[in-house]
Amino acid sequence: MGQALDVHRLQFAFTVTFHYIFPQLTMGLALLLVYLKTKALRTGDEHYNRAARFWARIFGINFALGVVTGIPMEFQFGTNWAAFSKAAGGVIGQTLAMEGVFSFFLESSFLGLFLFGEKRLGRIGHWVAAFLVFLGSWLSGYLIVATDAWMQRPTGYRVGAHGEIELSSFWQLLLNKWALWQYAHNMLGAVQTGCFVMAGVGAFYLLTQRHENYGRTFVRAGVLVGAAAAILQLFPTGDMQGKLVAYNQQPTLAAMEGLFESQEGAPLAILGQPDVEKRKLDNPLEVPNMLSFLTYRQWRANIGDGSGSTAALARKIVRVAMDAVDADGLCAAPLHCQHRRMDDRGTGAAAVADLRIDAHCKRNLSARGGGQCVVHADWVHGDVHDPGDPVAVPDLSRDRTRTGTGKSSDR
Amino acid sequence: MGTIWFWLVAIMITIYVLLDGFDLGAGAIHLLAAKTDEERRQVLASIGPVLDGNEVWLLAAGGTLYFAFPALYASAFSGFYLPLMIVLWLLILRGASIEFRNHIQSAVWDPLWDFLFCTSSLLLAVFFGAALGNVVRGVPLDASGYFFEPLWTNFRLDDETGILDWYTILVGVLALLALMMHGGLWVQMKTSGEVSRRAKRVAGRAWWGVVAITAIVTALTFRIQPQVKENFTTWPLGFVFPVLAVAGIAGVIFELRKHDERKAFFASCAYLAGMLTSVVFGVYPMVLPARNPVYSLTVATAKAGEYGLKIGLAWWIIGIILAAGYFTYVYRSFAGKVAVDKDSHGYGD
Ligand code: HDD
Ligand code: HEM
Ligand code: HEM
């Protein structure tokens, strides 16, 4: 089973990486094509139209490869992640189907017109076709990012009686905060890729002294747009990506940074090889206190709780929120944080599922003082499940029946 | 709600077959109908502008299936793992060969691209047919709701079925012939000169095969899948679907004799739509019949949550109206016969 899982992951990782080479470029070029067509329309200069035609060919072939490598991606949700699809298909299927119905139809219909129909469409018509291709591919980017964002930070769902995950709020799924930031961040990356390719081709023409007037246009467009995108990539979007990880997926952060021991004033590791046996980073090259600053904007902020293990780290992070739930929740919550899975495989009474940890980060839960806490319900988002309402993750077998207060499960 | 989505997905798949069917068919007869480079470019030009859009119907249908019937998607796609991987490779080879032929013009490579384009289209038609055959015959689903089928076992219809057995191969051959006819009719309508004449001849010959195998497969289907008979006896109204198919196939030969190219193509559309809707009607309410009927996936057991399906209906209707608009516009823009000039072999250079 473990082996099959690895093979599936490898296959999925390979195909998604290979697929993404193409959209990355075409989404960037789509914007640049609209830029060139707009220039052509406004200045009436045929030069820009010729430049757009040149890039349209490159766009076309990459787009076609994007389509044929994208089809496997959609199939693989069923072929490789059948159990996941069966459980969550009602939710992420929404965004995936919307991508097909809204953006793929749009892009592919107008791409044909854009590539083959310049003469028939006229100047304005051809600009509109370019714009709709751009709109379609950027819309597609959003919907696929929203799909992934739901896997990173699930919202707007409910767990049904048989463990199936159902949509409960369409808009929460669509306007997931993670999706909005990830989209901005990702599209800036795509724009940069397009810009670098365009500027690179332009620079090549200039250096080899061929088609120099095109070379200049390409370099100018590529460098100007690319520089702006690069800055926005770093701040605010890259910064926010990091914070989202820090607030929503603490163990991911610790793993990304090679942080085995939690500490105050955690350093940012520029270089180093994690040694999992000895639980330390070999040959570290670190910027002191930087990680704490980047994530919480405080030099001495505590990342982790000193007990070492990642699970303990996660437990610490949800401690405050946990007080508000019940003692059994303590077992399930770190599991949730660490594996993003909602089942503790029956190690304790089923108690808690998806409790968000920004409650702690933002210090939004009331102080701990002694007995029970007052929870501001607003800050505890996600569903809090009563004991006895186990939430199963379909592809995990239950290795023993529950012993706690919950009903024993027959699944 | 489940039944509505059952029919919506069925309609999307039917549209996919009508549209991508003619470009698959055009690919399958590519080497037969077009001999010179000029002629082959004509065939490619007749499908080039609409090909991507046609394929999107497969994706949109797949996506819709995914969200409306997650359990079906999960068990069908994991069970058909092997043939799906083959289909994927064929789709990739087909897309890439058209694209490379358009961009790398060389007498050395062109025959390879033509060959790849033709064989991948041909095999896709067979595989899609065999897939349909599998769905009608039923798959070895068990209590877990999953199954796995090898490509073939002993080609018999017992419990350990493979993707290919004599029944599904027969359906595959029918699909190939039907799409060759469909694609031939498209090519003769969109091109002129020798290609058009040859395409017409191929379509005319395929017609005989289609008629013969349709009759055999229909008879067999009633025996292999008892639900079909049950549905047609319970709701006799369902006979409109087979009647549509028969009218379509008769129309094809009638219009071909009258030399009405457009009507012949539309008659072929009617035949395909009639056949597919008959099958869909025949297996309802099952979405994936099992060899052991107890384990069959039905609309009720496979559908997603009610709220999601309701919300989905709202955006689906908007989306499909938009898509229908784009398609009408695109097909209108490229109406008429293609001419091979500079415009048609590259991208507007
Ligand atoms: C943010 C960008 C992005 C990402 C991360 C992905 N894609 Fe993609 N995809 C696109 C952006 C895109 C695009 C720009 O919209 C493409 C590129 C070329 C094209 O035709 O559309 C595309 C094509 C494309 C197609 C063909 C569409 C068509 O025929 O027009 C499919 C089926 C998918 N993708 C599906 C996926 C799946 C299932 C992914 C992840 C597992 C995925 N894509 C990742
Ligand atoms: C580059 C951006 C992406 C990152 C960083 C990312 C990250 C992740 C992570 C961390 C997991 C959990 C893996 C695990 O728990 O073992 C995951 C799972 C998954 N992601 Fe993404 N993802 C990205 C893009 C996508 C996209 C675009 C899709 C498709 C829509 C996608 C589909 C999936 C699927 C199907 C899984 C479940 C498979 C599994 O558990 O291994 N991911 N992703
Ligand atoms: C200065 C440059 C950049 C910074 C500071 C930055 C920062 C980050 C951070 C901190 C994350 C979260 C890591 C995680 O989820 O595990 C992230 C994720 C990501 N970045 Fe960047 N990044 C940069 C450049 C880029 C570029 C150029 C691209 C694309 C070409 C890109 C695409 C992505 C994607 C797809 C994700 C995954 C999003 C997710 O899983 O939520 N980034 N980035």
Walk me through what this model shows.
The complex is a heterodimer of chains A (411) and B (349). Chain A is built from twelve helices and six strands. Chain A has helices spanning 2-43, 46-79, 82-116, 118-152, 170-174, 177-207, 212-248, 250-257, 290-296, 310-323, 329-339, 358-361, and strands at 157-159, 165-167, 263-264, 268-275, 280-287, 302-303. Chain A has a two-stranded antiparallel ribbon with strand order 1-2. Chain A has a two-stranded antiparallel ribbon with strand order 3-6. In chain A, a hairpin with a 5-residue loop joins strand 1 (157-159) and strand 2 (165-167). In chain A, 45% of the residues are buried. Residues 305-324 and 337-411 of chain A have low confidence and may be disordered. Chain B is mostly helical and 349 residues long. Chain B has one domain (2-333). Helices cover 77% and strands 1% of the residues of chain B. Chain B has 14 helices and two strands; from the N terminus they run αααααααααααββααα. Chain B has a two-stranded antiparallel sheet. The model of chain B is unreliable at 342-349 (pLDDT under 50). At the A-B interface, helix 2, helix 3 and helix 4 of A face helix 3, helix 4, helix 5 and helix 13 of B. One protoporphyrin IX containing FE (HEM) binds at residues 152, 182, 185-186, 189, 192-193, 233-234, 238, 241-242, 245, 252, 256 of chain A.
